[in-house]
Amino acid sequence: PACTTGMDWAWVRSHGKPIRSVDFTKSMFQSDGACGSYAPPLMLAKQVPGCRPLGAISTGRVQSDDMLRMVWLILAVVVALVLAWPSGGTGSSFDDALTKWKSGHRPGVAAAIVREGRVVYQRTLGYADLKANVPVRGDTRFLVGSISKQFTATAVLMLAQDGRLRLDDAASRFVTELPASARAITIRQLLSHTGGLPDHEELLAGKIERDFFVASAASRRQPFTLRDVFGVLGRVPGLHFEPGDRWEYSNTGYLVLGQVVERACDCSYAEFLSRRIFGPLKMRDSLVIPQPPATIARMASAYTWARGEWINISYSPLNFMVGHDGVVSTIQDMTRWATAIGKEGILSAESHSGMFQTSSTNDGKPTNYGFGWRIDNLDGKRVSQHEGCWSGFRNGIVLSADARLSAIVLTNAADNDKFWNCEEGLNLARELLRRGMLGKN
Predict the structure, then answer these.
(1) 434, 184 in Cβ contact below 8 A?
(2) How far apart, in whole angstroms, are the C-alpha atoms of residue 144 and residue 196?
(3) How far is 316 from 302, CA to CA, in rounded Å?
(4) Phi and psi at residue 171, to the nearest 5°
(5) Which helix (H) or strand (E) holds 7?
(6) Half-sphere exposure of 360 toward its Cβ, with a 13 Å CA cutoff?
(7) What would the pLDDT profile of 140-185 be if each residue is shown by its tens digit?
(8) Could you give the CA distance from residue 139 to residue 141 in angstroms, rounded to a whole number?
(9) Helix, strand, or coil (residue 412)
(10) What value, to the nearest 5°, has the Cα angle with vertex 434 and ends 433 and 437?
(11) In sequence order, which ranges of 246-302 are alpha helices (DSSP H)?
(12) pTM of the model
């Protein structure tokens, strides 16, 4: 007989609740009256009397729980894979953004995308050390450059939460070496680049170009010291502008903030970051660059393309100043940083809000800079971002609060026509974030 009466009851293991089964019409069965062995995999069905089952799966009833367990296992794997993949962007679309890093014996890149605290894409390409043929890996260390400013700003905000300082304190309360012209600059103004301090790097080394960097400290060019910095600042007749009147990006301001951290915590900058940030966030491969001749394990060399070859430019006498620079990290650790700093927790709600809120000059003009973060937009969505470059490192980090998405790029190659194009790593991070948000293929 044709099986048109179907099944009268079924149990579907969906939230553990029974539901009434639908009729299974003749289209589901063979025309000779054999009952189709079709049944939804999660369904225990009462067999229709008088019908011959199809195939060997059923002989009148589901033979054992083994079959159900196998089906559940397969479905669990499928669901896990679906949930693990980002809703927007694909692995191939992200890889396409890294095309130029895929060929040749060249320096490398480490890139990652984090969605709601979960790493949904990570890729490393190229070489950390061309001479030794060491590839870039997930635990390869890069100098993150000015992305270090985020760690300095976080340290300052933590000390403010601890009651060790106030953001409207004069920085000279802690750093007494500041010249008289700078005595009124506040910690808040240094955080927001509205302090007006001259640039210490230019004062110490003049105009810095590619040939300022060499392969190693063997060049006998001794590192500059903090005494050198405050010495040249003291010889400058005044500030670039009255504190708060303008916005001007200032490495010197964040170097001074590094000293504020040290004086307020009565510890070194490196110790504070290790104890309060790197340790709690399990950023086990992150550190502050040590003084030479110390070496750093798994550290990428920095390169630039010149005269038809890759040249190692890892060293300069300015490498060992901290606060504005100096943090060394890996792509794995930076995903932990992006996850933690993108939400409250490591900082209080008030401090976290202040970090990502654009500052203003004395006349109320917005600066589009918070504390250690540039405030921008990407395809109409608000993002917080920062570039990080020094010698041959070109890095970028972008957070999108709306999409709860972040992208990080670390590279050890300055191969663009303009040596100080610090946007290269940041632009790549922005493109990865765009593909993650829009699902571009």
Answers:
(1) no
(2) 25
(3) 11
(4) -60, -30
(5) none
(6) 5
(7) 999 999 999 999 999 999 999 999 999 999 999 999 999 999 999 9
(8) 6
(9) coil
(10) 85
(11) 251-265, 269-273
(12) 0.79
